[in-house]
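[job 4471] stage=fold_predict status=RUNNING
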Amino acid sequence: MKNSTQIILVLLGAVLMLLVACLPITMFSLPLLGPSKHPAMDASATVQVIVTQTMVAMTQNVPSSTPVAPTATLAVPTNTPLPTATAVSYCDWVTFVKDVTIPDGTVLTPGQTFTKTWRLKNRGTCTWTPDYMLVFSGGSQMGDTSAVRLPAYVAPGQTVDVSVTLVAPLARDDFRGYWMLRNPAGVLFGYGDQANKAFYVDIVVSDLPYGTVTGSICYPSEFNPPMTLYFEKKGASQVIQFSISENQMDYSVLLPNGTYYAYAWAPGFNLEGAYVNGDGYLKPLIVKGGRTTTDVNLCDWGPDHHGRAE
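[job 4471] inference complete, writing structure tokens
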């Protein structure tokens, strides 16, 4: 029994060996070889494929219509010109030039007849004709005359002297009368930015022909040398002089009525002191009958003679 079993096992082993011999050798080699490996260049290709797939996925996630980022527009400054002022002009317009006669503050006696003359310039665009009139417009009329014709044609830019004969009032006081021009249409006009200012005559009526002038002498030293004090009548060659003694600081003099310039000269020092305006020119002063003009101080000293204010 034992021998029979051994025979059977031997036969089964032989059959199995026969079957194995018949199978291909690759059947046995596959498990030993394991999975095949790609060369190094295949690894980089794999990375490239992954990046490409990632880019494709990102592209697929982006909305189909991508909004465009707004661009900032810079405002370029422009040099806009400022509006220019339009020059004002009038057909009838006056420029007051000067008082030819009877300066302001002229002292007259009661009832005295006098002629006032103004020098005017045609500042407008229309020519003045003898149909234009010099007319009284307010204040003290000083007589019966209220209108006078212009003496000639006056083109734009030209000047003319216009005069009127007046009479000083009988009362003792200061008087001022206003005058303007009038065109043929009856429109009054004068000087100023709006051609509406009147020019005037200004007088003092007094019985007394003299007035008093007082002031001080501000000589630039601790003492005042002897000097001569001068009063020059404006618009005339008349000069009245007084002697000033050494160290005399103040003065008081009597002068005929009128308008004057005041100055002093220290001959030993070649210096002139004067009563001046802020610009250094001699300042006019008015002497009125029976009145005192104060603070005519001679305080501007120098080696040169002072100019006259117009």
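[job 4471] summary: Residues 210-302 form a domain with the Immunoglobulin-like fold (CATH 2.60.40.1120).
[job 4471] exit 0
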